[in-house]
């Protein structure tokens, strides 16, 4: 008679269990094996604790940090085979599309005002950095006193770049080539040549007037080299560290600088470009999700500061925002007071039921049609860090929608405005105070085609072509 295989399975299973129990008893009686298992458990708990600590730090302490290049927004058609042929690189294709823009008459590229050349936190005492802005190469260093200095980058001796290998000695920047030293406190005066007893008195480096506040190092730029008539506003909550730094975003924008602040005087675009929920991203038309039942609703009013004659350089935007559910239920109302200070500094003050906060926006021309836009976000402790990071990310997505337009639009010297667009006309009249060239040259002819990829920028384009 054949063997019943089904009846043999329980017997085999019981034998396996008995063998497993015997093995466990053997391990239990072996001290070295117990030690190994104990160490394995300790390692597992250690890895888990480190992972949880890292996750906690990332959520509740690590500042938000975002970089976005202008080539990421508005140039999606570049990858179309009709635009790239014969192994033409994406870089050349984008430059070609930029050249097609009808930017023939433009205001001066670098209006008079204060511009952020570097963020304070990246320049430690005794450090020197190279930067590129306003069409110039700069060296930025922080002396032993903590004071920041900005000068033209090239040594007047033979032309070495002071920001590349240069060393800080007290308040001086020392050339990496022959160790000539220039004093930041003495307006760039040459103070030392190690191999010469006689110093030529006429040799110096060009120093730029600096002002450090609100987390940025600013320099003063004026077409006629006039002294500053105003300074950036100082926000006590930032400078006294009573508010927490939550993070930053940095973006490149391929347009004239005037286009960016002009956005604040154009309330009509808000409920067109920014009505879709921020979760839809920077291009809602291509979003995977549809959130048509939730909309952002905006109302804004732009006015120049005419109350104080000493603050003609300031404009104020009052923004009222709420979210509309199902087309009839408003919620999450937020009021924002925006202060535009000069051509390149904006402070966006929030006052919500969760607490107060501020975005500091700086716009710095790198080249005539390439801007560096940096946002810092500070808030009271009532706004928890994960929420603050979501706010920064949401703001970045909203401005990315604008950048998609700015990158491809053409500056219009004489736009066709309706009655409802009159604030744009008022803005241009206000902004013209930052142009000091004679009236007949207030608009410059763009006669040469610039390369919109800045190879000298220290915050270099992160895309690889």
From TrEMBL:
Family: Belongs to the cholesterol 7-desaturase family.
Enzyme Commission number(s): 1.14.19.21
One Gene Ontology MF term: metal ion binding
Alphabetically ordered keywords of this record: 2Fe-2S, Iron, Iron-sulfur, Membrane, Metal-binding, Oxidoreductase, Transmembrane, Transmembrane helix
Known pathway: Hormone biosynthesis; Steroid hormone biosynthesis; dafachronic acid biosynthesis
Residues covered by the Rieske domain: 114-219
Protein name, UniProt field: cholesterol 7-desaturase
Domain of life: Eukaryota
GO cellular component: cytoplasm; membrane
